[in-house]
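STRUCTURE REQUEST FORM
Protein name: Amino acid ABC transporter substrate-binding protein/permease
Source organism: Loigolactobacillus binensis
Requested output: structure tokens
Priority: standard
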Amino acid sequence: MRKKIFWFALLCTTLFSALLVNATTSHAAEKTYTIGTDITYAPFDFQGSNGQYTGIDIDLIKAIAKEEHMKIQLKPVGFNAAVQAVEANQMDGVIAGMTITNARKQQFDFSDPYYYAGEVMAVAKNSKVKSLSDLRGKKVALKVGTQGAAYAKSLQKKYGFKITEFDQSNDMYNDVITGNSAAAFEDYPVMAYGIQNGIKLKIVTKPAQGGNYGFAVKKGENPELLAKFNKGLKALKKNGQYNKIIAKYLGKSSVAKATATAQKQDNSLWGLVKQNKSALGNGLLQTLYLTIISIVLATIFGVIIGLMQVVPAKWANWTSSTLIYIFRGMPLLVLALFIYIGVPNLTGNKISAFVAGIITLTLNEGAYTAAFVSGGITAVDGGQMEAARSLGLPYGKAMRRVILPQGIKIMIPSFINQFIITLKDTSILSVIGILELTQTGKIIIARNLQGFKVWTIVAIMYIVIITLLTWLSKAVERRINK
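Status: completed
Returned output:
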């Protein structure tokens, strides 16, 4: 039995090693640069009604790539995920309305500036807040890591307001619209574009403490990419293409056209489903892929570690207890970021977001599975093992033939609950840029600003899938208990 457990553990370790090796990026003769972008930062980065990512940043990097004859792969993952991925060498560069600051220059090398923007304060349309001095004692909404957030924090002590931070621009806007916060701080073109396209806010201050946007690479890395960007940017400014890109999104005619288009769209629940059925379907499939693969791997991992917890071998007991303690005690969000960002920093090998997500769910859910597997086995009366051994059965056969069949019936409800938890936990993986159902919802909201309705649709989809999974699990449970 001990030898079998050892080989099972070795097999599990080999499987995870294979996943990590699969994540290593091979360099082709002609390098393809991976560029991270934001997903909810219109008019610089957002998803259009046709499902394609668009915006000033997107059009600009594509035009520069064409001008400089270089291959790029865009990764719309969100501002924080993109920045952290570049720091971890998961991506080669980031273009996401990123303001060039002295603090960021410690971590990144920046291109020549490609846009200048000032910071403004916006409030709800019916708000009585008209200036910064009206914020004393009130709460302000900010987006994590942005220049708007930095500007607001520099004013906090002087004007005495409190701060709440969000990962997505739309969440920040809605916190002000619903009255939870009195104001939000944002780059002027972003806020102006959003208001023109339906956000129920108004700007009450003039642009201040502006900053230059720049394309960034990790400090000391990819100098050739930075040089190509600068060269391409100069060429676009010289031939007039740069001005055309800016005018496309910030010119008066384009704003009016975008507003008119937004007003014509059917924003009912069913209308939103029809408009976004392809994106929602793809997000749902990604969620199911993550869930199914993770459930299978987590069950294998959990059963092996759970059995190691109960065998009469101290090294196996100690190893199992340690693994359960670490992976069950670590928050899933932290574990995901550690695997996706931390491991590449330690090993120098890239890990795809999908593989990192699978490993994260397998380790976390597997630790919980191991705990109830060992609990289910120990719940079987100890006399059962004694009786089996007294009849001459070796330990391994007694475990397989006598203990496990009884223990499995005890474990079934816990397995069902863990399946459902795994499905719901996939939503946390949006933090590393996996385009599952929750991340898809964020992207759709960034385009149409229908937060309540889109989250209602996403919630219904989760409930339907969880209900079907529960029915299936219950059917399996009834079949086993017959």
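Reviewer notes: Residues 23-29, 253-263 have pLDDT under 50 and may be disordered. The longest strand covers residues 115-124.
Form closed.
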